[in-house]
Amino acid sequence: MHRTGELYGHFETLEQQKDSAALGMWIFLVTEVLFFGGLFLTYTINRHAFSVAFGAASNTLDLKLGGGNTVVLILSSLTMAMAVWSAQVGKKQWVSIFLIATLGLGTIFLGVKVIEYKQKFDHHLIPGSSFDMRYHSEHPGPNDDPKEIAAEKEELEKAFAVDPDINAHAQLYFSLYFGMTGLHALHMIVGAGLLLWLIKGSFAGRYTPQYNTPVEIVGLYWHFVDIVWIYLFPLLYLIDRHQ
Amino acid sequence: MSEHIVSPKIYLVIFLTLMAGTAATVWAAYHNFGAFNIVIALAIATFKATLVVLYFMHARYSPKRTQLVIVCSIFWLAIMLVLTLADYRTRGMHESRLAPPSNSNLVRA
Fold this sequence. Notes:
Helices cover about 75% and strands about 0% of the residues of chain A. Chain A is mainly α.
């Protein structure tokens, strides 16, 4: 294919080339909206049908970890936006710095997710034959506050009184929790790979005010993943905190 | 037509607004607004998502055809959500040969 510098032969200008690339990325993101939309729809229908179980299951999540991760991810969107800006104004060194910061924040997010998943394994909250909502309050760890365990037990017994089948219904919640946060994390891992590729390019000084399309396009993807989390956080962590 | 560059100042203001939105979501979740808890949570999330799309993703400064694609995605999402939920919410409202079995948990849920 004929190519002059960064401009491919079938485009008139670099700007037209960039607009076309952004349009293509947006069309991909439309399919992603519908993909995640289907999961949010499944969540809505089940939450409505089994609201007590979903509330009790949601309260087992660690709000400090989830909220902290929300801050980390939004901060990574800011550093990604700043990487695009640095390329646009020709601050080549800052492109690398902001891209590395974005990758670092994304890695922290995934690390926290690992801690959260591990806790769910320890508390027998993985859908399957050993799933048991009562397990944690009956087998508290050495670091658990006895008062909190007693409160958890009381809340759980209330929920069991309303919905005796809560263990079955809470498994639906955790299937959706692991499915949705797992797919979100998979998108983050893909994004981390793309960031590594961008960082390599930025070390070579590839991104300039004239040509920064790859940074802009990966930025669109990264911000989209952030938007998914903006919805996941309140819907998964904050169902029933006001009791 | 030259490329529009969003200043770091605007990015910072958007970031701080998103942080405030996150704090507001957590605050609202700890207060009982009855059926409105979920409405408030979704309203704040949608407000935050809109800011990300308009400023971080530069939709505000994009060509009209890109903006059209974005609006279409919301429209298609709305079709999926509204029609499916309208189906679930109205099942079993009147007897019909098409009604799902009465022991289904999702009926009148």
